[in-house]
Amino acid sequence: MQKQLGPGDAGFVLDDYVMYNLVRATAVYSEKMSEALKSYGLNTMKWRILMLLDDKSPSSVSDLARRSVTKMPTLTRMLIRMEEEGLVKRTALADDRRVVEVTMTPNAVKTLRIVQKIGHRIFERAFEGVSGANIGATTSVLQRIRENLERSPFEATTSSVKARAS
Amino acid sequence: MQKQLGPGDAGFVLDDYVMYNLVRATAVYSEKMSEALKSYGLNTMKWRILMLLDDKSPSSVSDLARRSVTKMPTLTRMLIRMEEEGLVKRTALADDRRVVEVTMTPNAVKTLRIVQKIGHRIFERAFEGVSGANIGATTSVLQRIRENLERSPFEATTSSVKARAS
DNA sequence: AAAAATCAATTGAAAATGAAAGTAATTTTC
DNA sequence: GAAAATTACTTTCATTTTCAATTGATTTTT
Fold first, then answer.
1. A82 strand D contact, CB < 7 Å
2. Which helix (H) or strand (E) holds A128?
3. Which residues contact B62 (CB under 8 A, 6 or more apart)?
């Protein structure tokens, strides 16, 4: 296996570029999930929040924002709506009343369990023909990507060469 | 390697779930790219469109929409803006005047080449510590995921069990 | 060949998003 | 221990995105 070609290199093929495939695969997956969730009154964001709460409850708003890679304002609004819909409860933390603790309602757990089955079927379809070993390897690589990128704030070494269109 | 656990199964760990990592890794990557592109007057969507045009020019609007997994209205507006900024040219196809052919301007090519270098550095950082073989394997899996999901329109087999929160 | 159907792209109204400012609570500094 | 700084979240407002309908062009049907 030789050195990775980057965009702009001669012989570079976009369809074989890992980053392009990463973004596109995720977009298609999100699209499918979104369709499937619609009839349950959910969208991908509510789904992700419920999954995160199922994983760790209660969670603070900022914790959910970080783990769902969503901006706080967006999340605040979404959580208010979800509270109105009876999916979550928001309460100020006793120790530190700046913090808002979010928990799932039993109702939300019930809905989540149903939707998880559908999510699992989409997952199975997505990985049709991919071995368990390869799924594991892919997971590791994805975890690694996130860690690598979250660790390092990107510093623009060519900051002097600021080209601009028009 | 045993059977894959799905969300809701006992012993399931969200942080090890491939779909969660897929979405999160992509979100972090997009965030980093977005930051890096800002000073060049670009965003991830313009960047992706330019990459697609660099790969195949001219392209129709619908073709770009499909390959960038973006809704047509969004793309139309973005292309209009990009034309105003001197990045692309839009012309009705002679054979079929419903179709709008989009091409990059030389100016855009110049900008793209610069930004690609930065994109490549982010890519390298993302895959720090990942072998070339593993990058290749990941690419294949991602391609497979997309193909699998694009092929099959998801049919809700539990469509009778429509639960709804609240 | 006129009418109906389909298709590619655009536009208009409504919802979602995010940067920046605002608020309230806690911690740090002097 | 009061003033300043920080933190966690919320709100405001301008922009972006999307759904649904529309336009203009081509193809299909009758």
1. no
2. none
3. B72, B99
CA distance B62 to B79: 12
Q: Which of residues 120-159 of B touch A (CB under 8 A)?
A: 120-123, 125-139, 141-146, 148-150, 152, 154, 156-159
A1: confidence class by pLDDT, cuts 50, 70, 90: low
Q: How far is the CA of A161 from the CAs of A117, A158, B19, B109, in angstroms?
A: 51, 6, 38, 15
The string of pLDDT tens digits covering residues A5-35 is: 878 888 899 999 999 999 999 999 999 999 9
Distance (Å, whole) CA A92 – CA B58: 55
The C-alpha atoms of residue A8 and residue B111 are separated, in whole angstroms, by 12
Q: Are strands A59-60 and A100-104 parallel, antiparallel or unpaired?
A: antiparallel
Q: How far is A45 from chain B (nearest CA, A)?
A: 11
